[in-house]
Every structure is written in structure tokens, then in C-alpha cells.
Design a protein that fits this description.
CATH class of the largest domain: Alpha Beta
Number of strands: 5
Shape: elongated
Structural class: alpha+beta
Largest sheet: 5 strands, antiparallel
Low-confidence stretches: none
CATH topology of the largest domain: TATA-Binding Protein
CATH architecture of the largest domain: 2-Layer Sandwich
Helix content: 40-55%
Strand content: 15-25%
Keywords: Membrane, Transmembrane, Transmembrane helix
Number of domains: 2
Transmembrane segments: 27-48, 60-78
């Protein structure tokens, strides 16, 4: 990644497309929402003879939850490439030192290319679960954490992980801020 591309990413505050932006992986990301919509929406159709014994209100609630999950999945897919930023007020050299220490603490498997770092955060079982991209600049550290598919051949992934991604973001921010306060 050259300086021009990194500058474009920083000005737009959005990552460029990569291997996680697979079309089929995104289509399969909507699968849970579509299952809920179909499972609870089909019995509500007027021409379907509903032999279910439960209250029709349950179908309406399930259908609304499915539609809400579909809308949230769409929103998460649109916003997942946005960059987060941490203001450090430190020069680039110190930011790089802080990043190397933080990424070492997080047990990432990183690939460094000048100011652009790509790493993979492990799960409990040491498998890659999230991709972290970090860009160091003067006074600022930009980062993005995205869910990955468990199987590299079949890139089916959900854009959300129900709290794990937020946990990684908070942990990363906290470690960076701790190092910044102590100036390494």
C-alpha cells in the first residue's frame, strides 16, 4: 500500500475493498434474517392455511425481528469499513512503537507495510476471528476491526459478532490510551 492510497483512505475515513468484501459472503450474511422473515412471515400470508397452535402475535413479532435484523445487517455491511480514530498527540515514530507493543499484547499475526498494518486477532482457540487494520500517522492512529469468515474457502460471514467486535475495539482503544498516557 503506497502513501497515496493510505492518504486517500485517511481522507475518506473508509477502507478500500479487500478479500472480506466478497459478494457471495455478503449475500450469505443476510441468511439468518431471511430465515426469520420466511419462518414467521409465511404463516401470515392469507392464502396459507395456518395450522399453528400459537398466537399470531408471535408470528408478527418474529417477522418484525427478521425485518429489523435484515435492516441492521444492511447497515453493518455499509458501515463496517469505516475507520475509527484515536488522538495521541504523539509523533509517528512513537505511534509505531505503541502499535507494535499493543499488537504484540493482543497476540496478533500482523503484516507491516510502512504505516499500514494488517493483523488478525485470535479467538479463545487461537483461530483468526477478526481482521484489524491500523494506520499510524502523526498525532493520530486510525483502525478498523472486522469479522472474518471461519472458513477461508467459503467466505460466508456475518458483519456482526454480538459484542466480541466491540470488546476488541474497547480493548484496543484502552491499551493505546494507556501507552499514550505513559509515553511508553
Amino acid at each position: 500500500m503506497n502513501e497515496k492510497q493510505i492518504g486517500k483512505i485517511i481522507t475518506e475515513r473508509k477502507l478500500a475493498s479487500d478479500n472480506l468484501d466478497d459478494k457471495w459472503g455478503k449475500i450469505w450474511g443476510y441468511f439468518p434474517a431471511l430465515c426469520l422473515i420466511l419462518a414467521f412471515g409465511i404463516p401470515l400470508l392469507p392464502f396459507i392455511d395456518n395450522k399453528m397452535t400459537w398466537n399470531p402475535m408471535i408470528n408478527w413479532i418474529g417477522l418484525l425481528i427478521g425485518i429489523l435484523l435484515f435492516i441492521l445487517t444492511y447497515y453493518w455491511f455499509i458501515t463496517e469499513r469505516n475507520l475509527n480514530q484515536i488522538l495521541t498527540n504523539l509523533p509517528l515514530k512513537l505511534n509505531k512503537e505503541i502499535l507494535s507493543k499493543v499488537l504484540l499484547e493482543l497476540n496478533t499475526d500482523e503484516q507491516i507495510s510502512k504505516n499500514y498494518i494488517v493483523g488478525y486477532l485470535p479467538t479463545l482457540f487461537k483461530q483468526k476471528s477478526h481482521k484489524i487494520i491500523v494506520i499510524a500517522t502523526d498525532n493520530m492512529i486510525y483502525f478498523n476491526i472486522r469479522c472474518m469468515a471461519n472458513d477461508p474457502i467459503i467466505n460466508v460471514r456475518l458483519p456482526y459478532s454480538f459484542g466480541i467486535q466491540s470488546f476488541y475495539e474497547l480493548k484496543f482503544r484502552r491499551k493505546i490510551k494507556d501507552y499514550v498516557q505513559h509515553h511508553i
